[in-house]
## 1
Amino acid sequence: MPRRKAADRTGPVKTRSRNGCKECRTSRVRCDTKKPVCTRCYEKGLRCTTNLVLKWESEFASRGVAFGRAGVWNKTRTDDSSSSSLPPTPTSLTEGAQQWCPVPPIHSWGFVNSGVVAFENPSEVDVTSNELHAMVPSISNPAASQFQLRSLADLGGIAAVLHPTPRAGPALFPDVTRMGHGELMDYYLEQICPRTTASSSVSSPFASVILPIGLSASATLFKAIQALGACHRSRTEPSYAALGLRLKSETLRDLRHRLSSEGSSMCCNDPEVLVIMMLLCLYEIVDKCDRHWTIHLKGAKDLIRLRREQTAALSSSRQPDSATAFAEHFFAFQDVMGRTACAKEVLFGSDYWKADDRHIDLWMGCSPELVSVLCAITDMSRARRNLDSEASRASFALRAEALENQLEHLVQEVEEEDDDVLASAAEAKRLAAVLYLHCALYGASPTTPLVSDYVRRILKIVSDLLDRKSLASITWPVFVAAVELDPSRDEIWTDGDGSPVSGRSTVLRALAAMTESTIANIARTRAVIVQLWQTRDQDLLKAPQTECNDWEWYVVPISDAMSLA
């Protein structure tokens, strides 16, 4: 029976499927696209496969044929159609009319793509996927060459025993030589200590304060130092991870034995115990920065409280030794800075800080007065939603205004007049404190003009420190500015050559560089920031939340147990 002509057919014209299998397409027959095997291949016993074929428009144009559906030919065209089977030549293909878009440089720190998990579990922070982007391969630190132990000259020339490629521990500490792994002690001195302060002219208190008590300390203190060194070094040399874990376990065992045998009332007056707990706390921060570091924080608080109660009972005005005072400030500062993000109750209150002390602390990178204000802001942010009367709201407003005025006029003093790096880090923290106050107490958001201005000023300082390769002590300012970036206005200023500067790009570059300049857990910080950016991007078309302010809605739920000191 002869085939009917196209004009005699009724119903829609059956065309080939775009998703047909390879065998059907080769035989030019219609494929029913059944999976995993189409009907024709099943009946004929053929291998049913589907291949993805990439076609390039430039190749079709060079051959003079239409590209895909770009042609005007069709099965139902009339004979008097004047259309050609070839499409008109696009303007972009004519000679001399091509326009190429510039391709921006691609860096490892720039990948913040959302995955399915980001949508399914928006409140869970994925640290693992951000760790590789937060790390850099090199472990060398230019700032280490500036590290000098000038304040320890009276210890018999301890600086003379530090070598660029150490082979044994310093002879000044025989316990290190007997324990072995003396290179970890030198790693602590040459790589960790310089990363704990933004000052380029004064030695870190992690060396100048801790090492003197090592002359009479037990081997447990040196195990804690070596454990911290091994943990930090394992970020680039994984073979040290097991050693660091073993040394940490031995340190914990020794510390527990001492606390149980001597009792808390005696151990609270020994500076070595607090220093060991401080080093263990740092170990957990460098390692994973999860809830484990807060366990040492709470244990230290109990010992410090007990020591203060004993001192008050004896009516003694004796000031604590330098190691004890430093350890107390370490724990108190970690607590205050971390709880600005999660808005939980502060363990170490404002009584740990002198509200009139404007001298910049070397390790904190800011003045005790600024920390005292931050502590007060966090307490007020917790009480803000419980204001139930006009009188309480009026009192709250007056207190907030007083703190804002105090921050605006706060001048932080630097011991070394030429230490402008430390002064810049302190100024970045002051600006971040003003920004934090407006967001946590006044309900400001990234679209608020004042917030945009302070974010730009903070990132300007960060960009300057980034160019100078000195980013210690600015984890908190970077975090505060990053979480308050406006997702719809990422270009925060224009560079000298007229090119726009991206806020998110500046933050990511700073975080990548901070893995070299600090000992903070940048992977955790970066993961929280990226998670918050993704949430903001997803909420651009949603109505704003009215029951919580911006800080409570976006920052608090994903920032538990963060170390931002």
## 2
Amino acid sequence: MTRQLKQRLLIYGAGVFVYVCAVAATIQYTLSDWVKFILFLTAYLVVGFDAFRQLAEHLMKKEIFSEYLLIILATTGAFGVQRYTEGVLVMLLFELGMMFEAVSTDSARRSIEQMIDIRPEYATRKVRGKETRVEPSELKLRHIIVVKPGERIPVDAVVTVGTSTVDTKALTGEYMPQTVEPGDEIYGGCINLSGVIEARVSRIYQNSTVSKVMEMVEEAQNNKAESETFVTKFSRVYTPVMIVCALFIMIYPSLTFSYGNWDTWIYRGLIFLVVACPCGLVLSVPLAFLAGIASAARQGIVVKGGNYLEFLSKADTFIFDKTGTLTEGVFKVKEIKAEGMTENELLEMAAHVESYSNHPIAKSLLAAYEGKLDRSRVRRVKEAPGFGISATYDGKRVHIGNYRMLEKQNIEHSRIKRTGTVIYLVADKKYAGYIVIADSVKEDAGPLMQYLKEKCRAVLVMLTGDNEASGMEVAEALDMDYAYTDLMPEDKLEQIEDFLGLQDKTEKVVCVGDGINDAPILARADVGIAMGALGSAAAIEAADIVLMEDELIRIKDAIRISKETLRVVSQNIAFSVGMKIIILLLAAVGYFGMWEAILAELGVMFAAILNAVWVVKYTV
């Protein structure tokens, strides 16, 4: 609980104590009207301290009409007709509702922090063989840190010494521990499970993954959604209308059919003002969005603001990047065709020669080769940028590369047309075969596309910088409506602009990506979704929603949470407005006393808030 909230509770408790003493004194003793006024005014000012403070802040911002103006006018009017007990009771119950909302909001925010607050408390820095415990924020680039079993990794770093297993669940949602060894990157917020490791800092604390995630969570609580803006605007119009209606009730009957009966009709006008306070509407809507953000956080989805939940529920166009988003982003050997040797022999030769390269193609060949490497069989390795790699393997001069390499070696052979990357092999000036390396579509991409089409009636679009053959194969496999290939980042942005221009105010465009080149379109779309918190920092920065676990199906979870949140918001608005109309009519004709009216209003407010709080426990 925050310090400010504790102070509010203490002041409120003191006001309640003074009020109870004042009521007891009036019952026990015969007091003059002046003494009663002083006692109840003291209680009123203490209990209503926060209401007056909020009204002052609104007036400083030139926001004259608010629910605080309504309640203060009503209760000061009650004092004017010597209804001291009821006037303080009205303020007491109103502030009780405010306290309930404040405590509920504080609880929801703390639940978010507890679920996602994975910031490390300390770091162990190693300097000249000595270990010193420091604040994570004190670490600088290339500092060496030591992480022992059970400790949380303080910042993003690269392992230099040691092998261990790391629990990445806090960041990625992945339950299976990951093995790390020298050269592997580790991320702040994850937990070292087994061995002692040393690592070199690759990002300072302020720029580390864990710090960025926490910043997004904190920012999420401050962004307002469209429905919240509607409620704020609604109050600005609603308040003056209610004040005019209350004045009409106070004045018109006393001048016409109930001539001279000012006390009765002023009292009813004051009751009308109390009942008119839109507390349930104003408080329950933002709390519902906060609850939706908390529910998403429990599913490993960080939403930067309630407005993005609202936009997501209205989305009808979904635009996806291809590599790393719809596909695994990892090249794998898909086809091997050998001439003059077996396929296994061709792969063995390619793996040995490429074992000296750090190129992604080399890594895919090594991953496909299951045998043991004997680098003594490889000599005189030479890379030729733009062509490939050459080496002497078992006494043979071997060349591996693209079709340009084949032409350079004066080998006549037709170009192989396959989806993906085709690498050709030449051994002792003879064509030896080819290997096709390609990306693969993610397993959950198909089910997500089907869900978007059936449940959201969405238009599905793919934008990629890959060639037409590779792009269209993925688009056809996933039954995309549109596919654009060979695009530069500026071309992708132009396509986004075109789709945005086709939308009306009730339709929204969602963009999903993971790389630096996706950052512009993620920022420009109505909702940008970044795939995985361990992806491009630029994409995470630009996105409105971040999927902590790098799984496409999480988008389905986010949509369901957004729709559930909007359902609760609609329920609260309809319930609050409907009950408000009924209570106002009853108050205007005299069926409600002042304290009965405020109790009815609080009942509506509590019901709406409780409905909103249930969203936090919503699971997909």
